[in-house]
Amino acid sequence: MVLEGIYTPLITPFHADGSVDFDSLAALVETLIAKGVHGLISGGSTGENYAETVDERLEIARFVVAAARGRLPVIVGTGAMRTPDSLALARGAREMGADAILLGTPPYSVPTERENALNALAIDRAADLPVILYNYPSRMGVEMGRDFLDRVGRSRNVIGIKESSGDINRLHLLARDYPHVQMSCGMDDQALEFFAWGARSWICAGSNFLPQEHVFLYETCVLRGDFATGRRIMSAMLPLMRVLEQGGKFIQCVKHGTAMTGLSTGPMRPPLRGLTTDEKRALEQVIRTLKTAVAAIKEGN
Predict the structure, then answer these.
(1) What is the structure's pLDDT at 245?
(2) Coil, strand, or helix at residue 249?
(3) φ and ψ at 259, to 5 degrees?
(4) CA-angle at 12, arms to 167 and 44, nearest 5°
(5) 5-227 falls under which CATH superfamily?
(6) What is the distance between the alpha carbons of residues 87 and 95, in angstroms, rounded to a whole number?
């Protein structure tokens, strides 16, 4: 499996009572496919997986796989605190016909690199699908370091890594020492740097509501190699990256941004709450400015 293009970690739309709004999820899938994204991810943290049961996550993933109808790859997230839950998600991904799994470190437990590698390999065996590793030490507590990568990288299934550490030295490490593991940008404000160092994909939550703008940056840098224009696009996108991280309200911002496109997203599941009126206004202004700036660059201005 080649990681190429923009992969959207889907939000999960909810009804007012907290149940999953599958009609809105279907509409989101159709919109993203029509707008040109290259893959979908079900069961990531952007989809509020931490607030869903394993059965719910499997039901949502089956729905996304069915809705995609083979038109683009669907990757299923297996991240969970309990290894049995990750194994159930991995087996379910294989059985439902998913194209790959996204495999992160179990949060909170802080395993050693050896423990983390053995855990990852068990999940890999349960799925027997292409594996995209997910390195996010600020959320998980530990990094997928050299010892981990050396052990896990021997598996024929491990084909890529979503790198979300924010450490530019990790990008250099992966590009130079692990060229057989495809890099995928997982730190939005470093997308340009990832593309410059050979990454050909970007797993970006913002593509839930700005798919064409994200695709434009990918096409400009990766397909055309035009990093001068790429810098202009990235400069226009950076204010959004800052707002998405305001006060830790990343998922809330992504859901409101998606609601701005006319799709129903519904409330957050506890413990999270939606944005305040002022926060919504600030996000809306940044998105409007970004869209105007990127449209002008597309037109050659």
Answers:
(1) 75
(2) coil
(3) -60, -30
(4) 30
(5) Aldolase class I (3.20.20.70)
(6) 12
Contact 286, 243 (CB under 8 A): yes
Question: From CA 236, how far away is CA 30, in angstroms rounded?
Answer: 27
Of 55, 54, 63, the C-alpha closest to 97 is: 63
Residues near 211 by beta carbon (within 8 Å), at least 6 away in sequence: 6, 8, 31, 32, 35, 36, 37
The residues spanned by each domain of the chain are 5-227
The DSSP result for 53-113, as a single string, is -HHHHHHHHHHHHHHHTTSS-EEEE---SSHHHHHHHHHHHHHHT-SEEEEEPPSSS---H
pLDDT in tens, 233-269: 999 999 999 888 777 899 999 999 999 999 999 999 9
CB 234 within 8 A of CB 217: yes
The active-site residue out of 134, 136, 218, 249 is: 134
Catalytic residue status for 134: yes
Question: Following CA atoms 58, 59, 61, 67 in sequence, which dihedral angle do they give, to the nearest 10 degrees?
Answer: 160
User: For 138-185, what is each residue's pLDDT tens digit?
Assistant: 999 999 999 999 999 999 999 999 999 999 999 999 999 999 999 999
Contact (Cβ atoms closer than 8 angstroms) between residue 263 and residue 13:
yes
- Active-site annotation holder among 7, 136, 162, 255: 162
Task: Give the helix/strand (H/E) hosting 282.
Answer: helix 277-298
Closest CA to 215 of 22, 7, 2, 51: 7
Contact by Cβ (8 Å): 107, 80: no
Residue, of 245 and 119, whose pLDDT is higher: 119
Question: What six digits make up the tokens of 245?
Answer: 């991280």
Residue 162 known to be catalytic? yes
pLDDT score, position 301: 78
Helices (H), 97-190: 113-127, 137-140, 146-152, 168-177
